[in-house]
Amino acid sequence: MDIEQRQSELIDQFVKQASAASNTSAISSVIVDATSHPLLFAFSEILALPNVLQLEATDEKFYLDLLRLFAHGIWSDYKSNADRLPQLAPDQILKLKQLTVLTLAETYKVLPYDQLMQELDVTNVRELEDFLINECMYAGIVRGKLDQLRRCFEVQFAAVGT
Questions:
Q1: Which residues of the chain have pLDDT under 50?
Q2: What sign for the dihedral angle of Cα 10, 16, 17, 23?
Q3: If we measure between CA atoms, which residue out of 140, 68, 143 comes closest to residue 105?
């Protein structure tokens, strides 16, 4: 099964769960589960649900903001707004960093290592390359070539996120 088909099935699953959620804590729980799921990289359909959008007027609004971050933001957006968002679990941090690479790969075909290390809070090239290979390429969200001489990642494919 390819990544798009897997995404579609997961999106349907979480849309059904969120649609069936009858109160704000149930909706918040679905949001946490969706943003933590290791294979889900698209959040717009969940974000469009009327009962999810109703969180805007509740004490649970920060879960809606969290979902918006995963749908449209990157790691640096979280860092600059962390005081207004729930603390992220390790799975969510990993996911948001993967989404950061995906977002940049959709926009640029060559990603300089220095830019990626800054965006991902990675301190060395080895750690960056391991992340790109193990967490992004193996996950199927991007394909490309690591160019150690030019210190960049050349994007050949980026799965459609958001």
A1: 162
A2: positive
A3: 143
In CATH, what number does 90-158 get? 1.10.10.10
58, amino acid identity: T
pLDDT of residue 5: 83
**Rounded to the nearest 5 degrees, what angle is found at the Cα of 118, between the Cα atoms of 147 and 81?**
145
Nearest alpha-carbon partner for 74 in 41, 24, 119, 9: 119
Check residue 141 and report its DSSP letter. Answer: S
Q: How far apart are CA 55 and CA 57, in angstroms?
A: 5
* Residue located via tokens 């690479």: 101
CA dihedral 44, 46, 89, 61 (to 10 degrees): 100
For residue 153, the cross-strand partners are 111, 146
Residue extents of the structural domains in the chain: 3-72, 90-158
pTM score: 0.92
Task: Report the pLDDT value the prediction gives residue 25, as an integer from 0 to 100.
Answer: 94
